[in-house]
Amino acid sequence: MSWVSFLALFFITWWVVLFAILPFSLRTQDEDEDVTLGTVPSAPRGPHMLRAVLRTTIVTLVLLGIFYGITRGLGLGIDDIPHIVPDFSQNPENLTAGHGCPHPVHQNQSGPEADAGF
User: Angle 3-21/49-68 helices, nearest 10 degrees?
Assistant: First the structure.
C-alpha cells in the first residue's frame, strides 16, 4: 500500500471512528444540573473535543495497526475475505451417492467400509 492510500484510509477511518466515539463520556448540562440560560438541557457541559480527537486518533492507529498486521504479517487482503469462512453449501456435484460426504477419501469406496458408513 502506498503512503497516499494509507493516508486516505487513515482519513476515512478517523472520521468514522470520531462519530462513533463522540458520544462516549459526554456529560450534559442536565446531568450536572447546571443548565446555562438559552441552551437546551441536553447540550454538552463543556468542551470535550480535544479528548475526543485524542481518543479517535489512538483508536484509529490501533485499528490500522491491526489492519497492517493482517495484510503484511499474515499476507491476507480484501480478496481473501470470502475464503476465511468455510463453504457449508451442499453442492450436489461433490456429494457421493448414498454417503453425502464430499471428502475425496470417502468417495468411490466399496466393500464393507462403504456399507458400514465409514
Answer: 130
Geometric angle at alpha carbon 106, from 105 and 110, rounded to 5°: 110
Count how many Cα atoms sit within 13 Å of the Cα of residue 67 in the half-sphere of its side chain.
12
pLDDT tens digits, 40-98: 888 887 778 898 999 999 999 999 999 888 888 888 877 777 777 766 676 655 555 54
Q: Where are the domains of the chain?
A: 3-84, 89-118
Cα distances (angstroms) measured from residue 72 to each of 42, 78, 90: 45, 12, 34
